[in-house]
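Supplementary Text 2. Reproducibility record for the structural model of the 477-residue chain.

All settings were left at their defaults, and a single model was retained for analysis rather than an ensemble. We include the record here because the model underlies the residue-level annotations in Supplementary Table 4.
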Amino acid sequence: MTISLLLIFPIVLCIILFLLKKENLNNLFVIIYAIIHLLLSTYYMVFEDERFISKYIRIDNSNIIFLVILSIIFMAVSIYNKGYMNLENVPIKRKRHYTYMLIIFVLAMTGVIISNNLGLSWVLVEATTLASAYLIYFSKTKNSIEAAWKYVFICSIGIALAFVGVVLLTIATGDLSSLNYYELVLNAKTYNTFWLKLSFIFILFGFGTKMGLAPLHFWLPDAHSEAPSPASALLSAALLNSAYFVILNVYTIVYAGNCSDYAKEMMLIMGFLSLFVSAVFIYHINNYKRMLAYSSVENMGILIIGTALGGAGIIAAIIHLIGHSLIKASFFLTSGNILKIYETKKIKNVNGLMSVDKKTGWLWMLSYIGITAFPPSILFISEFLMIKSMLEQGHYILAGLFLLLLTIILFGLGRNVINMCYGEISEERNRELSNNRNRLKISMYVPQVILLIIAFLLGIYIPYNIEMLIKLSVVGL
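Retained model, structure tokens:
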């Protein structure tokens, strides 16, 4: 029954919305689904006896953290979405289509996370592409159409590579004839190591495309820049996690098959390449939403590096995933406030934010502090643990490179954020922008405040139960 609420209920909501076509149901249905999603994920987190595993679906220690994070981000987005969409001057029909796709997008991501079958995961990852493409295309401008097509094209290439990887994995398994994760891990020691290694390359590049890892990250800056801010928050703080979760599942199989050293080398290469690309582009960026997108590429690189380090590094990766999701969602939602006030995405055209809207200014500044791992951000813990792991494993050059690239990114982000928050602004311009500011609703501030509070509190103290869930999510790696 509970799974039906999670997977079938959103479809029912879309059907009702299609039949009734009532404008006031758009935001209401999104919020209803978000509440149910959060209640159910919390229920499964608290009551372990209610979790279950079947042939195609599982809710257990390996994915409950991912499910709860998706619920929290979706809840924050649903609250923010109400005020944001009320300010969008578009036809009602387009808003209704937006609601369909937002609900289906979350449904598809939920499916990826609770899937217990690699083939089903592949199908659902493709479903996330189809659902979110309309969200990117929502404004129907030349740039949004181009971004949507680039997103579909590049992610389709990625999903094709992943499909080849799945086929190669079935060759490696021999007579097993199953894509069930549990069975794949259980029999991993019997696999042909050549085909297993080859399959991991294709799966890492394939799902790594959806995760936003370099060198196949090109869709991400355009998509994040053109999508409405609530959709951008979901793309960065939830979709990338879903793709990472599939990679983590496949890495578990490779690890059990004694091919982890090869897999770690591949992940370290893609991770540091992602950091390098982010450092180069963030330093010269002129669009603040694209800036946040490259920050997401950076953080996905950090996740995959932590995974490659293993031990404390992979625990740090899960901690980093939690922190990045919370803080980046806050960052993207706050960028929506800036867009509504200044009506531009150009960094050079935004200044004096603290004077125009102090609440948005502080949210922007605190999101920057959080994402760059300044204490008490939870990301300080994750990055500290990763550097410690590198030093303990003798990766001194990698640790130095890691710190150098993070410093460049910190400086590039900080320069832009500070220039946007401060600077001279004329009284006439201030009055003009204040009129736009007054249109913002309280619901466009509260979600960011809650997300940042959680991220900073976890940076001070991680409750024992959450700490155990983090550790249990990577048992065996």
